[in-house]
Amino acid sequence: MSVVTVKRMEAPPFREREALRYAGCAEAREEILEELGEALVEVRDRLDYRVCYCELPLTVRDDRCEMGELAVASAHLAKALSGCERVLLFGATIGVEIDRLIAKYGRLAPAKGLLLQAVGAERIEALCDAFCKEYEKENDDSLGARFSAGYGDCPLETQRDIVRVLDCQKRIGLFLNESLLLSPSKSVTAFVGIKENL
Amino acid sequence: MNFRDYLKNHVVYLDGGMGTLLQARGLRAGEQPERWNLLHPEVIADLQRQYYDAGSNVVCSNTFGANSLKFERDELEKIVCAAMENARSARDASAGTQEKFVALDIGPTGRLLRPLGDLDFEEAVAVFAETVRLGVKYGAELIVIETMNDSYETKAALLAAKENSDLPVIVTNAYGADGKLMTGATPEAMVAMLEGMGADALGANCSLGPKQLRGVAKELLRCASIPVVLKPNAGLPRAEGDRTVFDVDAKEFSEEVAALIAEGVRVAGGCCGTTPAYIRALVERTKDVALLPLVDKGRTCISSYTHAVTFGDDPILIGERINPTGKKRFKQALLENDMNYILAEGVRQEERGVQVLDVNVGLPEIDEIRLLTQSVCELQAVLDLPLQIDTANVEAMEEALRRYNGKALVNSVNGKEESMRAIFPLVKKYGGAVIALTLDEQGIPSTAEGRVEIAKKILRVAESYGIAKKDLIFDPLAMTVSADTDAAKVTLEALRRIRWELGCHTSLGVSNVSFGLPARDAVNATFFAMALANGLSAAIMNPYSADMMKTYYAYRALSDLDENCSDYMQAAESFVQTATATEVIAKSAQSFATELQYAIGKGLSDKASALTAELLETTEPLEIVNREIIPALNAVGEGFEKKTVYLPQLLMSAEAAKSAFERIKLFLAESDRSEKTGDAVVIATVKGDIHDIGKNIVKLLLENYGFFVIDLGKDVPPETIVQEVIQRKAPLVGLSALMTTTVPAMEETIRQLRKAAPWCKILVGGAVLTRDYAQRIGADGYAKDAMEAVRCAQALTQF
Questions:
Q1: Which residues of B touch A25 (CB under 8 A)?
Q2: Which residues of chain B have a CB within 8 Å of the CB of A115?
């Protein structure tokens, strides 16, 4: 059985330009930056950056990726993981608090709701990036691109298996809804190919 | 001996971990451990026997995940039956001579409850109820609810246990390294809720080792009046090859847990990574520890899903503004089911500094049971203050208390037999602190003595229902001083005697005292100060009254309740700030025709509101809308379409326009003029989808352009949408879906609408939709963004 590890991360550096892009702004404008800054301040201390992950052995047969207790039929995933013998599977979340704030402002002050949404999208992406970077450093591996259930021909139903294998509910408070959405909403699960550093 | 009796006079030892032991015996990854009750009963019984042999008084059945979300009904029954049988045979086989009990183990459902997730509260109750009924049927002697990381799910499980059995119930939660549950509750909040609902013991299990859980355990011991349970992991896990190992061994574990037993923990065991050896070491180490007496902490406490509010010397402010009495605009909002209006009122009061919100939505012409429950749930989705549920409708009270996430303040009971008979059973069942009014069948006594006597009677009757003094907060009733000049004196005397002679907490609806007098704020604030000095614990009051807030902060500073007077000084900054509604805005070079148009264009909500109020003194509402607001909105909307204005700017402007409209609505409501409402549009995010920011944006813009929008929220079943459309005869529906997985729900909604409401036009939008796809699923219109939704809605509603 694969061993799942839980990690709590420090807040990764904030990438303002990314957040602006998620908010639908092609360029920075003073009044938007001001509002964005306020949204960030309000949410910053309420985020909890958590990841759970495990390494799985990989065998690819006819576009079917067999990874220990997990098997996924997807040509796109097989391609993304090609050349790798091991896969890093992880679930990441920044917690439920931001969902509460998005729900609050989404109804009472939608501009702020939108910006919080953008901050959340930037934060979870930044968490995934920071986690992968740290993993590479700690294990002296290099990682391929992240690949999530629902990309290309990889069925979204794969989420069920991922969440089960990682036991995300218990470990980091990451849940799957009936319609295969993740809760908290600012969460990601992904496969990453591990390339051996020669 | 039965478990409850044993718990009174003993330290109770629970069992330890099961998962790692089962893996060592061959449980494969992804295999359901509960099935092993049927497949390998001898293995389960053997492991459980080892725990009894090690000294466990209670062994939990192997039913952590045995629920109807994971297993079919028939298999579930077989599993629970076999699991109870295995635990019993383990007990029979054990050589241990201690008292031994068999517990039904209940873990989380694995789903997150609404509003954060998609599992309905009542559905969760039903899932737990089924397992509880099976446990009872197959001989459980107590129920252990464990590893819950959400307060709402914990409530659902405990409620199911209480409604379907008379068995003792132990409840333990999984606290994180921050000392809170995953969804935010503190140990103090959990104690308030679980004690209120009648758990027999409560505590912490899993997630961390005994050292890291020490703080949580101490906090539970500080707050709880019932036995505290501790069931930590064997420290923190780490990967060692293909195994998970834990960093605390049996010796260290038993030392750490024993230390906490010496400090008052009454029920102890182990969770992940612990084995019979850990339990044996713990039992051995604590066999001579003297049992600390269980002390009733006497705390008067209510809670939300994050924190508790405790009554004491520091006065509690209960915001009274969510109440339609005397507020025409509020009544209108209730009649229109305008939840956002209610939520905004809640958030504003929170910003003014109240610690509790009173919620009263009673109007003769509405379905109060539905609306009160809806208000409670929606308020709890956006703010974390404990609520005071305020209704005379007993059914509405029950439904709201049932759904409430935490321990609510109940408003109210009084000395009438009928009232106590209706309210006390609800308080007993769902938990709650209750406001008790000192009146009875004979009315309100004119003397302090009479009111104190009623308080005594209420205390006696409450006790007969098992409701402790600490859960009663007496309101000696502020009467109008202009009608009877010694009214305030009588109230204050009754207040003082109840507080200091009966030792109960008190509350007053302060502003009643000034009815019929001019400059009421001055009278209210002075009376408030006098009441505080006489022992008032809480006030139901208007937090927008500057005089009341000044009194509150000054009282705290003068009573040594405000360290360094820092709260007072911070609040004082707002005392000197005068509302400068007429502040002049320098017009920018961007050629806005008027100041209001500028304010809207720049997204300045407060300014837009103030300027509209000024304009209303001289200008007809319709003229303001047509000459000011609409042109400003149009300019911004065109900018957005030309991509010179970005979405956040569009929204800021829309919000500013909304605040201008709100002023106009208030003006019309106050002057009893009916507003011309536009066409009704029903909008919703479809079933299964919980993303609603896009829908909220569309709603805001549609409202700005004069549509009367009925927002059904997110994750809305097709039937609900159809029903609303028929009821409102709505000419237009807007549907939103973000995910490919929820587009079928949109398609189904359209199908049902076509059949049941053929007149209704359907507009769709959302991240995954395209114009083509919208057409294919039978929509009349598709909008790629909020501005297009407005244009499209206008086109579709012009017949």
A1: 646-648
A2: 648
Looking at the domain assignment, is residue B295 inside a domain? no
- Backbone φ and ψ of B314, nearest 5°: -80, 115
Contact B646 A32 (CB under 8 A): yes
**Cβ of B347 under 8 Å from any chain A Cβ?**
yes
What pLDDT was estimated at residue B581?
A: 38
Q: Provide the 3-class DSSP secondary structure of residue A169.
A: helix
Q: Round to whole Å and give the CA distance between B352 and B541.
A: 12
Exposure string of B697-709, with b = 16+ CB inside 10 Å and e = fewer, is: bbbbbbbbbebbb
For CA atoms A135, A141, A144, A147, the dihedral sign is: negative
Contact status, residue B436 vs residue B473, Cβ threshold 8 Å: yes
Say if B305 falls within a structural domain.
no
Distance CA B513, CA B497 (A): 19
Phi, psi of A73 (to 5 degrees): -90, 105
Decide which of B610, B645, B670 is a domain's last residue.
B670
Split at pLDDT 50, 70, 90, the class of B584 is: very low
Same domain? B453 vs B337 = yes
Question: Which one-letter amino acid corresponds to residue B563?
Answer: E
Number of domains in chain B: 4
Tell me, yes or no, whether B358 lies in a domain. yes
Q: Which domain holds residue B608?
A: 595-670
Report the range of poorest mean pLDDT among A149-158, B34-43, B291-300, B577-586.
Answer: B577-586
Residue B686 and residue B665 in one domain: no
Q: How far is CA B156 from CA B72, B124, B142, B335, B391, in A?
A: 21, 6, 17, 31, 23
Query: A5-195 in CATH: which number?
Result: 3.40.109.40
Per-residue confidence at B577, pLDDT binned at 50, 70, 90?
Answer: low
Hey, which residues 155-194 in chain B have their CB within 8 Å of chain A?
174, 176-178, 182-184
Shortest distance between the Cα of B646 and any Cα of chain A, in A, equals 6
Pairing of strands A5-8, B732-736: unpaired
B664 bridge partner residues:
none
Task: Give kind and range of the element (H or E) at residue B413.
Answer: strand B409-414
Please count the CA atoms within 13 angstroms of the CA of B45 that sit on its side-chain side.
17
User: Are B388 and B357 contacting, i.e. CB atoms less than 8 angstroms apart?
Assistant: yes
Torsion sign over Cα B657, B658, B659, B660 = positive
Confidence band for B690, pLDDT divided at 50, 70 and 90: confident
Of A4, A68, A114, the CB nearest to B651: A114
For residue B531 the two structure tokens come to 């009441």
Enter the tokens of residue B658: 């909304």
Segments making up each domain of chain A, as ranges: 5-195
Residues B703, B659 share a domain: no
Whether the Cβ atoms of residue B206 and residue B147 lie closer than 8 Å to each other: yes
By the CB < 8 Å criterion, does B151 face chain A? no
The DSSP result for B34-97, as a single string, is GGHHHH-HHHHHHHHHHHHHHT-SEEE-S-TT-STTTS-HHHHHHHHHHHHHHHHHHHHH----
Q: How far apart are CA A170 and CA B114, in angstroms?
A: 18
pTM of the model: 0.91
Residue A152 CB neighbours (<10 A): 11
Query: Tell me, what's the ipTM?
Result: 0.91
3-state class of A133 per DSSP? helix
Residues 6+ apart with CB under 8 A from B31: none
Which chain A residues touch B178 with a CB distance below 8 Å?
A: 48
